[in-house]
Amino acid sequence: GVSPDTAPEFFAMSSNGAFWPVGNVYMMTTLADDHKPDGKYKELKPYQDSPQDVFNTVIGLFPKVILAVLLLNSFMKPLESGAAKTLSLDWILPIVVRDLVGSYAICFGWEWLLYGSPLAEKLKKYKMNEVYPSQAQIRHDQYHTFWCVLCASAIEILTLWLYANGRFGEVQSSFWGSSVLCNVLTVATTTYWRLLHFFLIHRMMHPWKTTAIPDVGKFLYRHVHSLHHKSYNPSTWAGLSMHPVEGTIYFTAAIIPVLWGAHPYCFLLCKLCLAIDSWVAHDGFGPPSAGVYFHYLHHAHYSCNYGDTVMPLDYLFGSFAAGPPKSKKAPPEVQMFKSE
After folding, report:
1. Is 213 helix (H, G, I), strand (E, B) or coil?
2. Model pLDDT, residue 327
3. From the DSSP assignment, how many helices (H) and strands (E) are in the chain?
4. Do the beta carbons of residue 287 and residue 14 sit within 8 Å?
5. Tens of pLDDT along 248-289?
6. Are 243 and 225 in contact (CB under 8 A)?
7. Whole-structure pTM value
8. Torsion angle, CA of 315/223/271/147, rounded to 10 degrees?
9. Three-class SS string for 3-49?
10. Residue among 275, 291, 243 at smallest CA distance from 111
11. How many CB atoms lie within 10 A of CB 70?
12. Which residues have CB under 8 Å from 175's CB, separation 6+?
């Protein structure tokens, strides 16, 4: 197997998603059985501070870029044929079926690898929380994932309809046309602008802790976002276990490239990133898997790490946590739901 001396370098490459799932599966199968987790993935930096960090972020898009290319023809077909000008099951239903089948295939497959495959016993020591999620939580997350995926499909259907009817301006005939520079920059920076969107909407749905104005965040947490936090020991299924309101807002990030007239491919790529990166980040395992410890801390402690260190907004606004807080007591808004 891979020696413990070289394992951290492989972990660093695979854990940022650049080689998911192939890189992660390779590490899982070749890592020496007696290797002990080194915990380096828990050494969090509040922001990116080197060109290597930026390179890792950009190259981490690679699997989704390839998948988006493979799906592009079918994605564009309703636009190019003119079918998307009217809402019809002829082109809507294939989108819904594709999304549901793809989502459940990825989640069931990755979850089986971590919990039910011949590798499961070997991977136990890499679990961030040694307690495994209950079957009740898994069923809860599977149920709400179904509805969140439908929200994602609805966003795509609406976007195609708006494109087809000229509401988003003229559709570029080719990604490599006159706006190629805009398109390439949009693709390369996808992780950055979508995580800016994620921080803003996520922080909005936690208590604002202010009396100067009505605490809309407290209301949204109680009635919307608390559903996602029922998965306080997350697994892959927790990634899109969201209230339909939150799921719809979350997937609106894919529409952002419309603001500067990018090719519709950029919408498709972002939609894939929103789904896949969320599932993988929530899987609950450190390297050689692809769980994100930064976000795991948010699920475990709730009032920290609302975004990602790719965009240093938690550092700027004082919500960055490099490890578990000194106080183990959950904040009041969490205790209400954790006891249910």
Report:
1. coil
2. 55
3. 16, 0
4. yes
5. 999 999 999 999 999 999 999 999 999 999 999 999 999 999
6. yes
7. 0.91
8. 150
9. CCCCHHHHHHHHHCCCCCCHHHHHHHHHECCCCCCCCHHHCCCCCCC
10. 291
11. 10
12. 183, 263, 265
What is the end-to-end Cα distance of the chain in Å, rounded?
44
90 neighbors 155 (Cβ within 8 angstroms): no
* pLDDT tens-digit map of 196-245: 999 999 999 999 988 999 999 999 999 999 999 998 889 999 999 999 99
What CA–CA distance (Å, rounded) separates 171 from 79?
Answer: 9
Cα torsion at 197, 201, 207, 210 (round to 10°)? 70
Task: List the structure tokens of 105.
Answer: 């295939």
Q: Do the beta carbons of residue 223 and residue 262 sit within 8 Å?
A: no
**Beta carbons within 8 Å of 98's beta carbon, 6+ residues apart:** 71, 74
d(CA 73, CA 334) in angstroms, rounded, equals: 44
Mean pLDDT for all residues in the chain: 90
Rounded Cα distance, 198 and 218, in Å: 18
d(CA 87, CA 91): 8
Q: Please, which residues bridge with residue 316 across strands?
A: none
Q: How far is CA 24 from CA 66, 285, 286, 321, in A?
A: 17, 11, 11, 26
In whole angstroms, give the CA distance from residue 113 to residue 122: 11
Residue 209 phi/psi, 5-degree rounding, is 55, 50
Task: Give the contacts of 58 (CB within 8 A, at least 6 positions apart).
Answer: 188, 191
How many Å apart are CA 230 and CA 233, to the nearest integer? 8
pLDDT surpasses 60 at 101:
yes
Phi-psi label, residue 283: left if phi above 0, alpha if psi -120 to 50, beta otherwise: alpha
pLDDT at 168 over 70: yes
